[in-house]
Design a protein that fits this description.
alpha+beta; Rossmann fold; Dna Ligase, domain 1; D-amino Acid Aminotransferase, Chain A, domain 1; 4 domains; 8-stranded antiparallel β-sheet; 21 strands; 32% helix; globular; binds adenosine monophosphate; binds glycine
Length: 437
């Protein structure tokens, strides 16, 4: 197969890395790639949102399968465009992607399908939203309906904060059109889990449980980021909870989407809030997660291209999908100042040590403990032949081992080998699962 991957972050590096090991894949293109991806895929200098040019490219190169990373590219309707052009592409149509692009759409589907989720109401005018908020007591969550780069959600422990969030989204238009509709929902407590399922429109197969770490600082403090680290599987969320999530969340959602004539094909990423036996869906995403994809690809033992093609072709029920029972953990190395302002172009040192020059004592230890380590590039660039920082999330150091604690130690050991001025990373990734927080 010839495969085209769209995107340029750590998630896409992980996808390309896994495809590179696939026996059925002999050529990988990536639009636009990054210095890590470029070592194993041919870079395609077409902007990920230039859907028409990408389809022309895929046609001209006889690409057999295209895989999309970023949510804005999915929302731009790339899957509809490729499908009309007779090209195979993994991901949902724009209509099915509304599960992520419109929170009120997602909530309506959940209500229709009987999927457990927080109580909610949707508003198109600020006055009604205000009236509703004033009639409620207790904590609430105010959300801009559309995609708002993860900033459209405000947890409100009092009415004043909720009123302010409504004014910000609906009157001051902080998120543009994404905030012209707002939903107000009940505040849930518990543990957040990212649950993935590979879907072909009718059937689905679980694709791993993860815990992301969204805040920038240890102990879940500081502003939200794209994600500072993740681990998988989540031991607190066992096979029984996984089976329940398939039965109570994923399959009813697929059935509801099918009934509307907009079947969901692609990766369904359910953000869950769990509390004991209780499972609630906080949100749906319709793509691979970042950084969840990095440990996910490390754990994947089956052929990624074949698995995704099975979803495109409606054959998930017969697909051989295997995730290693080992634990994988990803630690994101970010630029100083991220998620606020940060500098770019700072020299990155030490990566070559990890890629081929691991000190022999560490190498022996890792081999004896069956540890694998891989660093995925996210915001990096080559300048005058040297690797430099080029984004907020710079690298994802990922390690896999038979035990989670071993994988965590190895990821941090590797993370410490890489240096750049201002480098920051969380030191408590997976600590919750290890029971020491
Ligand atoms: P979302 O963009 O919907 O995933 O929301 C971003 C974050 O806000 C989530 O990861 C949760 O931490 C938090 N959040 C969203 N909705 C709720 C809710 N109903 N109750 C508690 N926390 C929530
Ligand atoms: N890990 C968060 C996301 O991919 O949206």
């Amino acid at each position: 197969m010839k495969v085209l991957v769209i995107g340029k972050g750590g998630r896409e590096h992980a996808l390309v890395w896994r495809l590179h090991q696939s026996e059925t894949v002999w050529k990988i293109f990536c639009a636009t790639g990054n210095p890590g991806i470029d070592q194993i895929a041919e870079a395609v200098p077409i902007a990920p949102t230039d859907v028409a040019a990408l389809a022309d490219f895929a046609k001209s190169k006889s690409v057999d399968l295209t895989i999309v990373g970023p949510d804005d590219v999915v929302a731009a309707g790339i899957v509809d465009h490729f499908t009309r052009a007779g090209l195979k592409i993994f991901g949902p149509t724009a209509a099915a992607a509304q599960l992520e692009t419109s929170k009120s759409f997602a909530k309506t589907i959940m209500r229709e399908a009987g999927v457990p989720t927080a109580d909610f109401a949707a508003f198109d005018d600020a006055e009604s939203a205000r009236r509703y908020v004033k009639s409620r007591t207790g904590s609430m969550v105010v959300k801009a309906d559309g995609l708002a780069l993860g900033k459209g959600v405000v947890i409100c422990h009092d009415t004043t904060t909720a009123l302010e969030a409504i004014a910000e989204a609906m009157e001051r238009r902080r998120f543009g059109a994404a905030g012209s509709r707002v939903i107000v929902e009940e505040f849930l407590t518990g543990e957040e889990i990212s649950f993935f399922a590979l879907c072909d429109g009718e059937n689905a197969i679980p694709f791993g449980t993860f815990q992301d770490h969204k805040q920038v600082f240890d102990g879940d403090r500081g502003p939200n980021t794209g994600g500072m680290g993740a681990y998988s599987p989540v031991p607190q969320f066992g096979p029984e909870m996984e089976a329940r999530t398939m039965r109570e969340v994923v399959l009813p959602t697929l059935a509801a989407m099918n009934a509307r004539g907009t079947p969901f094909r692609g990766m369904l990423y359910a953000g869950l809030m769990t509390d004991g036996e209780r499972i609630n869906v906080i949100e749906f995403n319709v793509r691979f997660g970042d950084p969840e994809c990095q440990p996910q690809m490390m754990r994947l033992d089956s052929d990624l291209a074949e698995n995704l093609l099975a979803a495109v072709e409606g054959k998930v029920a017969n697909a051989a999908i295997r995730l290693s029972p080992r634990s994988a953990v990803a630690v994101v190395l970010a630029s100083g100042g991220y998620p606020g302002e940060y500098k770019k172009g700072i020299a990155i040192r030490g990566l070559d040590r990890l890629e081929g020059n691991v000190p022999s004592d560490i190498k022996i230890k890792w081999a004896m403990k069956k540890i694998r380590v891989k660093v995925f590039h996210a915001g990096t660039a080559m300048r005058d032949g040297k690797l430099v920082t080029d984004g907020g999330r710079v690298l994802t150091v990922t390690a896999m081992a038979p035990e989670l604690a071993t994988a965590v130690d190895a990821a941090y050991e590797a993370a410490e080998m890489i240096e750049f001025e201002g480098r920051q990373f969380r030191r408590d990734i997976a600590r919750r699962a290890l029971g020491s927080s």
